[in-house]
Amino acid sequence: MAPSSSVISKLKVQLKLSISRLRMVQQKDTAIAKQQRRQMAHLLEVGKDESARIRVENIIRSDITTELLEILELYCELLLARIGLLEAKECDPGLEEPIKSIIYAAPRTDVKELQQARQLLVEKYGKEFALEAIENSDGKVAERVLRKLKVEPPDSELVTLYLREIARSYGVDWPRGERKQNEGNDEDNDDPSGGEAEKTLEEPLTTEELTKATPPRDLGPKSPVSIAPPSPSTDNLNPRVKLPGPPELKPGAKMTGLKKQTPTTQAQSDPKENGGDDLKNRVDGKIPDVDELARRFAALKR
């Protein structure tokens, strides 16, 4: 048996190739199914209903196969994302379903890259593990994979639904007369009163009801800045948006020095220290005489 690291490196490459190949096959099948739908619409239009019912089963089978390839593509992406868990000797319980589903379904597809990835998985986990996946003895293969791989004719109801959808998409009147009948019912529903207009006007709201009414939230100009709330995560189940507040300004050393000098300057220019008479004269609005001016001048010289 090859070393585990060598198998894992090869498996990683094959998973990437399988994903690309599965996508290409899905696109190709979708394009072919679109052409087949156009052919079914033509058969319905010319009245070959029985031929359309038989051929539409190929479209149904193609859609089921496309859905199966999409499931296998998702499983390959899962294994590629958790490639580190494949290095263990035993299969991780979380990867048991995708691994066994790939081992079970890969031989039933035409994707060679996926089949090579299946061989590497069998080589990694052994024949007993692969036998359990092939026989699905432990029921680990995904149920939707088992349903897509069932070989059985589609129900007649499903066939009819497919034909109805194809006819509606391409504008074909099928079943015959149903489209005209639906249009007639629509016209009857548009004028239920038989041509007589019914006036059902609502009473206008009173002033009190208008004052009690709450204005809509989207009324008025909207802010050009919008903040989307964060999505919940395992770490924070109820996230909230916290907007930053205004920055807190701290005074520097220069501003602190100015604050200390300000009381002294105010004390020197305070009119109370220069005499209560000056304040009284300013308040009373009287003009001082010559003696008072001389006294003030002498006080300023000091």
Topology record:
Layout: H1 4-46, H2 49-81, H3 96-105, H4 112-125, H5 127-135, H6 143-148, H7 156-169, H8 178-190, H9 207-212, H10 253-268, H11 276-284, H12 290-301
Helix pairs in contact: 1-2, 1-4, 2-3, 2-7, 3-5, 4-5
Q: Could you describe the 3D structure shown?
A:
The protein has 302 residues and is an all-alpha fold. It has helices at 4-46, 49-81, 96-105, 112-125, 127-135, 143-148, 156-169, 178-190, 207-212, 253-268, 276-284, 290-301. The protein is elongated. Residues 195-199, 232-237, 269-276 and 279-283 have low confidence and may be disordered.
- Mean pLDDT comes to 78
Sketch the topology as an H/E string, one letter per element: HHHHHHHHHHHH
- The number of helical segments is 12
Q: Please report the total strand number as a whole number.
A: 0
**Helix proportion:** 55-70%
The low-pLDDT segments are 195-199, 232-237, 269-276, 279-283
Radius of gyration: 43 Å
**How much β-strand is present in the residues?**
under 5%
Main pleated-sheet profile: none
Tell me, briefly, the overall form.
elongated
Termini, distance in Å? 110 Å
Structural class category: mainly alpha
Main attributes?
mainly alpha; single chain; 302 residues; 12 helices; 61% helix
Short structural summary:
By secondary structure, this protein is mostly helical.
